[in-house]
Design goal:
This protein is mainly α. Helices cover 75% and strands 0% of the residues. The longest helix has 35 residues.
């Protein structure tokens, strides 16, 4: 740790306060996603926008993914504390705008702004590197993973209470009191902002990277809805690939690249980011669709589906905590990732056998194994990358991993949703559509006559299980990458990677 970093770091007694502020920020973002997903049907009804309701989630994901690399780089250049305070403030202002939205376009616009403020997450992850020693990063990053696990259960419960008892608007307004507390603690307890090397902002690289993120999110979020072979999706894929090719020479010439080429040449950074991508794809296919499966196939309420998911969250929280502690030993990082990925793969294969006849105890065991696997990977990946780069590049490195994980989450949800909907529609093709049943909407199964309902439930059951079997190979790829991963053997401060000569190689700021 450099002298400048030591002087900026909080005293030992202040680490707890600083971490409290960061954990509250992660809680804000995690709860926002899970609460809002529960409230979407009521939002669509109240704002008369069922056809475009998907944009409420997609708008946030688009904006947050697009700005993640820029927030990370700006934090390296201008100090993470001030940007953390700014991004959190933007998030809270946008939350109020969402809660007061009078129509769907206003809500979607406010969600875009909220996604921009969501850059506080990558700053949060990077700030851990400023606050604690490299050997302790895994333990503290593990706390964030536990927060996500708890939010995946508490969020839907709160969303149901707000929607049924109060108003869906509280799904957004609840962010305000929590966020104000986080800001008050952060302003006092976070280390003073330190500026990095002075350089012109890489506007061109940031714009291209944001466009790539936009293309990826739109393809994964709307590929099924618009048609995978439609001109819009094909055009987006071609444009995204072309922009990705163009990004490399642009970043090589930039004075302060938002995505440093030297970092992308690191096997540790690239392999860890890809592992994070595949792990998040599997994780979100589980967290998003298992509650739906429980509600439709097993007929439980939204509240009870959350209770049924408790073994998964318990496995996630415990394994996250243990993995964080084990990650203090650098030579264990690859083993932790392999064990986690193998457990996650086993969990998906077990979920591929579930059905209406699977009793609660067996489901709980399957959920527990899956949760253990989910919990051991994400934050260990982040710790592996942070330990492999200089402190001056922590923000950019954290942004690379966060970016990969965000795209992985969108990819997992989109692909699993396509598999589920296609499988369900194929198996219910011959069912009568009288009474309001729609094969494109499994929630309408209850409208079928009793003699046809069992057939539809069996179809949804098989489609869900088959979807998890198709997702499982992504984790097999992650396991292969982990076998060749070589975590940095030293976690001490290393010199910052030299920047290109601005006078010689810089591209003009746009």
């Amino acid at each position: 740790m450099s002298k400048a970093q030591q002087s900026a770091s909080p005293k030992a007694g202040g680490v707890a306060d600083a971490m409290s502020a960061l954990i509250l920020a992660v809680l804000l973002a995690a709860l926002d996603q899970t609460i809002v997903s529960t409230a979407l049907p009521r939002i669509a009804e109240d704002l008369n926008g069922f056809d475009d309701i998907a944009w409420v989630s997609a708008a946030y994901l688009l904006a947050s993914t697009a700005v993640t690399p820029l927030w990370g780089k700006l934090g390296d250049m201008f100090g993470r504390k001030r940007l953390y305070l700014a991004s959190t403030s933007i998030f809270l202002i946008a939350s109020v705008a969402c809660g007061l939205a009078r129509n769907l376009p206003e809500l979607i616009g406010a969600r875009v702004l909220q996604g921009v403020g969501g850059g506080m997450i990558v700053l949060t992850f990077a700030l851990v590197g400023d606050i604690v020693a490299p050997s302790e990063r895994g333990r503290y990053q593990g706390m964030f993973g536990s927060v996500y696990g708890v939010a995946s259960i508490v969020g839907p419960l709160l969303g149901g209470v707000f929607t049924d008892q109060l108003s869906w608007r509280w799904a957004f307004l609840v962010n305000l009191p929590v966020g104000i507390i986080a800001l008050a603690i952060a302003a006092r307890a976070l280390p003073a902002a330190t500026r990095g090397a002075k350089a012109r902002i890489d506007y061109l690289g940031a714009t291209i990277l944001a466009a790539i993120a936009t293309g990826l999110v739109l393809v994964t979020s709307f590929g099924e809805r618009w048609g995978w072979g439609s001109p819009a999706i094909v055009g987006l894929i071609i444009a995204t690939v072309a922009l990705t090719v163009a990004l490399v020479p642009v970043e090589r010439r930039a004075a302060a690249p938002v995505l440093p080429p030297a970092m992308l040449a690191s096997r540790t950074v690239v392999f860890s980011s890809l592992i994070g991508f595949f792990a998040n794809a599997a994780m979100f296919s589980v967290l998003v669709y298992l509650p739906t499966y429980l509600q439709i196939v097993h007929g439980v309420s939204a509240t009870l589906s959350g209770i049924h998911m408790l073994p998964l969250v318990a496995g996630l929280v415990v394994s996250q905590s243990l993995a964080g502690r084990w990650a203090a030993h650098v030579d264990r990082l690859r083993a932790i990732l392999l064990v986690g990925l193998l457990a996650n793969l086993a969990g998906l294969l077990l979920l591929g056998t579930i059905g209406a006849a699977t009793n609660t105890l067996v489901l709980s065991v399957y959920f527990l194994i899956t949760g253990v696997g989910i919990g051991m990977v994400p934050m260990v990946v982040l710790t592996t990358v942070q330990n492999s780069v200089p402190t001056a590049d922590l923000g950019a490195a954290s942004a690379v991993v966060t970016f990969a994980r965000s795209i992985g989450a969108a990819f997992g949800v989109a692909v699993f949703g396509t598999l589920l909907n296609t499988g369900f529609a194929d198996r219910t093709h011959g069912l009568a559509t009288a009474g309001g049943f729609d094969a494109a909407r499994p929630d309408t199964i209850g409208r079928l006559p009793a003699d046809l309902r069992d057939t539809a439930l069996d179809a949804f059951d098989h489609a869900t299980a088959t979807g998890y079997l198709w997702i499982a190979p992504t984790l097999a790829v992650g396991i292969l990458l982990a076998l060749f991963l070589k975590p940095a053997r030293k976690t001490a401060e290393t010199p910052r990677t030299p920047e290109p000569d601005p006078a010689k190689d810089a591209v003009p700021a746009v």
